[in-house]
Every structure is written in structure tokens, then in C-alpha cells.
Design goal:
GO terms for molecular function: isomerase activity. One of its GO terms (cellular component) is cytoplasm. InterPro entries: Phenazine_PhzF-like. This is PhzF family phenazine biosynthesis protein. The protein has 268 residues and is an alpha+beta fold. It has two domains: 100 residues, Diaminopimelate Epimerase, Chain A, domain 1; 146 residues, Roll (Diaminopimelate Epimerase, Chain A, domain 1). The chain is built from five helices and 15 strands. The strands form two sheets. Strands 1, 2, 3, 4, 5, 6, 7, 13, 14 and 15 form a ten-stranded mixed β-sheet that branches. A hairpin with a 4-residue loop joins β11 and β12. It is globular and about 50 Å long. The chain starts with 6 loop residues before the first strand and ends in an 11-residue tail after the last strand.
Amino acid sequence: MQGNGLTIFSDCDALTTEEMQAWTREMRQFESIFLQRRQDGFHVRIFTVEEELDFAGHPLLGLALHLHQQYGPTHAHEWLVHTKSRPIHLSSREEGGEFIATMDQGKPEYLRTLTDAESEPLYAALSLSPPGNPALRAEVISTGLPYVILPVESGLDKVSFQVRDLTPLLAPLGAKFLYLLDVVNLEGRTWDNQGLAEDVATGSAAGPVAAYLHRQGQLDTPDLVIKQGRFLGRPSEIKVRLELSGPDIATILVSAKVVKVADIQLLS
């Protein structure tokens, strides 16, 4: 009963977009994923309670468990899943009685380094101050979903939203969401842009966070663990491995343990 939950709909070919959105609201998870089998493989659509996303992380990691249990003939398997943005390689394995899912997020895209004038309104919107180290600049990075990685050195517990919606601040920067990162403790927080719902574990942000730390020279090893969810009483850990080609990132592997909580039969 920790980490981030999701609902997997595996029999949904007849559902319309509006019905998928309605079922996501009904299940009240941060995200739900809808699986469709086609001739060229597995296709997914991912929804929050507010909208459909082109890509998301923790629903794909959760999906790996479902695929493994339904179609995986051995203790380890690999999958190619088509999201709205691009194909994603997943792997699944059972190890010591635990199930571990891994997602290959590929190379990061460094979209923008924010100036002080661009980042200061974001800090003010969360009632925070920039880090004391001026070299720690906020950046927009994507491995499928563009995030502003907003660094702090402390104060995750001090967040208070001062704006009704972050979207007008993020959209001009080319970002979809904001991820607040404590670079000292490798812990983060992120919300929907209205600040109404905080996420427990954000796989789509894990790759950008790791890419940010690597670019900023904050990592001594290519392996790291990102903590999240403490402020919701559901602490989570996402493991990230950077595969390097010289000083550059060749690909980012994001992993987490996954547990199935229930099988649900919908009657209507």
C-alpha cells in the first residue's frame, strides 16, 4: 500500500475516447492505461482524470506486470508498446519473489535552460526561493513528456501554491508539467498544473530528472534512486540507470517494483 497506483483496462477496443476518460475519472487513480492488441503489437492510451497524455511512465511500468502475467512465457521478457508519442521498449522480470519492470526512455531532449527571469515566477508560484548555488539552473527536459526541472536544495515541505494554474507559466517554456527536485536528497514533488492533485511516483519525469542531474554534474554514478510520495504518506522509489557514450547519455533505463493489487470485473 505504498507507491503509485494505476488501473489497467485490457479489454477496451469498443470504448470511445470519452468513455476512456469517464472510466479514468471513475477509478480515481492518478492515471489509467488502456491496452489494445493490434496486428503490429500492443498499443496504449493513457489518461489522467483531466486529459489524455501522449506518454507517461508509471502506467507503462505497471503495464509490464500485466503483459508478463498474461503473455510472458519465462521469468524475463521484453515488450514493445506503442504510445501516442512513440514506441517504448519495456522489460519485465521476476527476481527473488519480486516483480521488476524497466522502461527504456531513450536519449533525453534538452529543450531549454531557463533564465532567472523565466524561473523566478515558478519559484514564486510555489512559495519557494531559488537554490543558493547559482549554477543550478532550471531546465526543460523531455524523454517523451517535457518537464521543467526546478531545482531546490531544501524546502520541499514549504510548498504552497500561489497561482491557480501553472500552465500559463509553463506553456511559453515548452513544458507540460513542473517537477520540483531536491538535488541534495534526490527527492521530488510534482502536481497537476492546478496544484489539486500531487503525484506519488512519476516515471515520465524520472528520465528528465536523471538527465538534469547528469548535466549539472550532480551524479557520482550512473545509477540513482529518486524518492517521491512522502508528503502523501505513500513513499515511492524509482530507480534510474544512465547508459553513457563518453560524456553523453545514450539511453535512460527507468525501473520500479510492481505489485498487482486486484483483478476487477466491470459489470457495465
